[in-house]
Design brief:
Layout (H helix, E strand, L loop, with lengths): L1 E4 L1 E6 L11 E4 L7 E5 L15 E5 L2 E3 L5 H17 L4 E6 L6 H5 L11 H15 L4 E12 L2 E4 L15 E6 L5 E4 L4 E2 L3 H18 L6 H4 L1 E11 L5 E11 L6 H4 L3 H25 L12 H5 L9 E8 L6 H14 L3 E4 L3 E3 L1 H23 L9 H16 L13 H26 L6 H58 L9 H8 L4 H18 L8 H13 L2 H54 L7 H64 L16 H16 L11 H9 L3 H6 L1 H6 L8 H9 L11 H5 L9 H4 L8 H25 L1
Parallel strand pairs: 2-6, 2-15, 7-14, 7-15
Antiparallel strand pairs: 1-16, 3-4, 4-5, 8-9, 8-12, 8-13, 9-10, 10-11, 13-14, 14-17
Helix pairs in contact: 1-3, 3-4, 4-15, 4-18, 11-12, 13-15, 16-23, 17-18
This protein binds adenosine-5'-diphosphate (ADP) and magnesium ion.
């Protein structure tokens, strides 16, 4: 048993912008306990005189300042916990702090760079590396990913759910057994046999979480997330299994309700989050007080799930994340206070060992059989039924291998069955006789004794019959194997054809060609093809299904998407990552080539050494005397061989690391793409709604003249649109790309443009023939898709059907006469083309 208080660490996030210094100081003297001092600035700027205490000091195990890298955080905080989990103890790491203080960054990692990966991916990597090194035990690893939102649990890895909203996912519920152990119903466990599979599960969960949250309901900051690695280990032949769980917890933002300016849905959420964090605090207080018999775990789902982590059988670590800016001082102090209380809690971690019932049954069955045999031997009880053909064959095989075994210690183990023992003697005798006869017949082959002939033939005949039987059996086994192999090949073919169609889907996605999707398949296909196939399938179907991404977007939408993407802040990251990915791919390719070269060099060197040896021996034999070998040359060859082997090893390790990095980057990019797509869908839906609601219908096209509108209606139009700008719902949404807005304000008729990014898109290019202008104009007249079901939006566009009147009846005009006449001319031209097309097709 290991007794330990909960370890507390602090991590200060770098400020978003440059800020005044002196808000905090870190005293991190090697010999002293690290101490964080938060200094309240004495200023009157806030309109009140600061009469409060001037500084607060908090002690932590270690404090990581702004420049601490993810690697350092992992080494110091997570690695020791991972080690104890590998040893069989439960572990928990949880991040606590206000929204934006870096909890997700610390636990999961940043979404941009590989070096920003957080505790979860690094821990997975470390654990799988250790498991690979340790061949003395059999390990199994499972992953679960739970989200708790508004006191309800959701399984982020539920393979069945196609839900687009968190609330539609199946709920995870708590069950308590008679020993007061908590079980989670509806939380799926997924086996992960390597780092890659585990990483895929992490990204699957994160993407599900992202898809389920809507811009109105940014659940990620208001929900708790628990990523759990379940590790079981067993020594071969033993029935005792060790179980250890590692919870990696990203808690909801700890800010107070008053600050969030809440109302409606938000109030409900804030109530729940603050309530569950409040219950967490209550549990912590209860645990930190001596002689408290009742700990109120049951008050909230989170405390129930983390019951063992808090004051139970677990090694627990807390990371207080701090965003130490002036406006966050209150929250930072409250986070540190919470941590100080947490540090008082003592946990007692024990090894979780249990007997595996299945292994136990096998052991017991074996023991029963042995005892039965022994009993039969002792009591002399006779078994009457004859041995079966298979048993006889088995015995004969045993005898053959016993006779062939060179080991003098080897034994003929047939159990305590007298029938078997008798048969063994009988068979041995027969073998011995056969041998004798054979010898006789060869020695005196010329002196043929007529009466000896019959038995020999009889024996020979029997032997041949046995042999035939044996061969028949072998053939049967081989045929079965062949059948199995054939089935496997068919399955593999089936998989790869499914896979190819998936890849086609990926390629037909609205992302530009040239991303290394194709390379991905070739890179992944090497060692674990079937697993990778399923993972790939998972991921690409995830991209399509979960994001609501249409496999076939209408052309107009696709082009609008291209523009949206180009102007989105994340596109820089995606492009950067694409560049890095390309570099990594070429590096991996070059490495692969060098590895092959090194391998063939090693082969050549080995051949050369062997050739020399043979030459040497041949020379010695022919001359009948020993020649001293030329040591210089052989040593040179050997050291070259060693050098090549070393080079090969280094390159191989690098290639392995590259593979993990490439995989991670691909997942990051997939995630970014899903996010982009989701934001586009939301923007598109909103835009379409606005256009339908706010734009007066343009006259039927037959009456539409490619001339400017009357000045009155023009004015109405621009008033309408500009008033739209002032409406609160058109204020910049958090998901709206900043650059689009910037562009809008730069355009000549910015009043109008700022109100409608669609129009901004239309203005994006000044060349009327450019596809972006066409596409952007197609954006405007699109029907109104419901935000919940974006797929409906593409079905009504004019590109897919005949000439829908509806699409041309709600075209917004900009108020700019030149542009408006352009739009109308375009609509007219389009109408003409479509009519021609229809006539042609009729
Ligand atoms: P939380 O999960 O606590 O709400 P996040 O982890 O999402 O906060 O962090 C908010 C933002 O700050 C993110 O953009 C994240 O990338 C960034 N960030 C947080 N911590 C760090 C850090 N230590 N270094 C660099 N960026 C950070
Ligand atoms: Mg977060």
């Amino acid at each position: 048993m290991v007794k330990q208080t909960i370890q507390i660490f602090a991590r200060v996030k770098p400020p978003a912008r440059k800020q005044q210094s002196g808000i905090y100081s870190i005293d991190d003297d090697e010999n002293l306990t690290p101490c964080l001092e938060i200094i309240i600035p004495r200023d009157l700027a806030d309109g009140f005189v600061n009469n409060k205490r001037e500084s607060y000091k908090f002690i932590f195990q270690r404090i990581f300042d702004q420049d601490a890298k993810q690697e350092i955080i992992f080494e110091n905080i997570a690695k020791p916990v991972a080690e104890s989990v590998l040893a069989g103890y439960n572990g928990t790491i949880f991040a606590y702090g206000q929204t934006g203080s870096g909890k997700t960054f610390t636990i999961t990692g940043g979404a941009e760079r590989y070096s920003d990966r957080g505790i979860i991916p690094r821990t997975l990597s470390y654990i799988f590396e250790q498991l690979q090194k340790d061949s003395s035990k059999i390990y199994t690893t499972h992953i679960s990913y739970l989200e708790i939102y508004n006191e309800c649990g959701y399984d982020l890895l539920d393979p069945r759910h196609e839900a687009s909203r968190l609330e539609d996912l199946p709920k995870v519920t708590l069950l308590e057994d008679t020993d007061q152990n908590i079980h989670l119903k509806n939380l799926s466990l997924h086996q992960a046999t390597n780092e890659e599979e585990a990483l895929n599960l992490l990204f699957l969960g994160d993407t599900n979480r992202m898809i389920a949250e809507t811009p109105m309901n940014q659940a990620s900051t208001r929900s708790h997330c628990i990523f759990t690695i379940h590790l079981s280990s067993k020594e071969p032949g033993s029935a005792t299994v060790r179980h250890a769980k590692l919870h990696l917890v990203d808690l909801a933002g700890s800010e107070r309700v008053a600050k969030s300016g809440v109302g409606g849905q938000l109030l409900t959420e804030a109530k729940y989050i603050n309530l569950s964090l409040h219950y967490l605090e209550q549990v912590i207080i209860a645990l930190s007080e001596k002689n408290r018999s009742h700990i109120p775990y049951r008050n909230s789902m989170m405390t129930s799930v983390l019951r063992d982590s808090l004051g139970g059988n677990c090694m627990t670590t807390m990371i207080a994340t701090l965003s130490l800016e002036k406006r966050n001082i209150d929250e930072s102090i409250s986070t540190c206070r919470f941590a100080q209380r947490v540090a008082l809690i003592k946990n007692e971690a024990v090894l979780n060992e249990e007997i595996d019932p299945r292994s136990m049954i096998i052991c017991l069955q074996k023991e029963i059989q042995e005892l039965k045999d022994e009993l039969a031997l002792v009591t002399g009880e006779q078994r009457t039924e004859a041995l079966t053909e298979a048993e006889l064959l088995q015995l004969e095989k045993l005898i053959t291998s016993f006779l062939e075994d060179q080991d003098p210690q080897s034994r003929l183990e047939v159990g305590a069955d007298m029938r078997k023992i008798h048969h063994c003697f009988h068979h041995l005798k027969k073998l011995l006789n056969d041998k004798k006869i054979l010898r006789n017949s060869t020695v005196s082959s010329e002196i043929k004794e007529p009466d000896c002939q019959e038995p020999v033939r009889e024996e020979e005949y029997k032997k041949l019959r046995d042999l035939l039987k044996q061969r028949d059996n072998e053939i049967n086994i081989l045929v079965n194997m062949l059948k199995k192999e054939k089935k496997k090949t068919q399955d593999a073919l089936h998989f790869s054809s499914v896979d190819r169609s998936e890849i086609r889907l990926v390629q037909s996605s609205p992302f530009p060609p040239g991303n290394p999707e194709g390379q991905r398949t070739s890179l992944l296909s090497a060692p674990t093809q079937s697993q990778d196939c399923s993972m790939l399938r998972n991921r690409s179907s995830l991209l399509h299904k979960k994001s609501g991404m249409r496999e076939e977007m209408s052309l107009g939408r696709q082009e609008a998407f291209e523009i949206f993407k180009r102007d989105h802040a994340d596109s820089v990251t995606i492009d950067d990552n694409k560049q890095i990915l390309k570099q990594r791919f070429s590096e991996a390719k070059a490495l692969g080539e060098s590895i092959n070269e090194a391998r063939s060099k090693i082969g050549h060197l080995k051949e050369e050494i062997t050739r020399r040896h043979i030459q040497q021996v041949a020379l010695e034999v022919s001359e009948n005397m020993a020649f001293p070998s030329t040591p210089g040359q052989e040593d040179r060859l050997r050291s070259q061989l060693e050098e090549e082997k070393r080079r090969y090893k280094i390159m191989f390790t690098r290639l392995k690391a590259l593979k993990v990095e490439i995989e991670h980057l691909q997942l990051l990019m997939d995630k970014a793409k899903v996010k982009l797509q989701k934001e586009f869908e939301a923007w598109w839906a909103e835009e379409a709604t606005h256009l339908q609601v706010n734009s007066p219908a343009v006259n039927s096209l037959d009456h539409a003249k490619p001339s400017p509108q009357s000045s009155e209606s023009q004015q109405d139009q621009s008033q309408l649109l500009s008033s739209q700008r002032l409406a609160p719902e058109t204020a910049r949404k958090p998901w709206e790309p900043a650059t689009v807005l910037q562009r809008q304000t730069r355009t000549a008729c910015h009043l109008v443009a700022a109100s409608s990014p669609a129009v901004a898109l239309a203005r994006h290019s000044t060349d009327p023939a450019s596809p972006s202008v066409l596409s952007a104009r197609k954006v405007s007249p699109s029907p109104c898709p419901s935000p919940r079901s974006p797929e409906q939006s593409s079905t009504g566009t004019w590109l897919e059907g005949s000439i829908p009147e509806r699409t041309t009846s709600s075209v917004p005009l900009t108020g700019d006469s030149q542009t408006d006449s352009d739009i109308l001319a375009f609509l007219k031209a389009r109408q003409n083309i479509l009519q021609k097309k229809c006539l042609g097709s009729n």
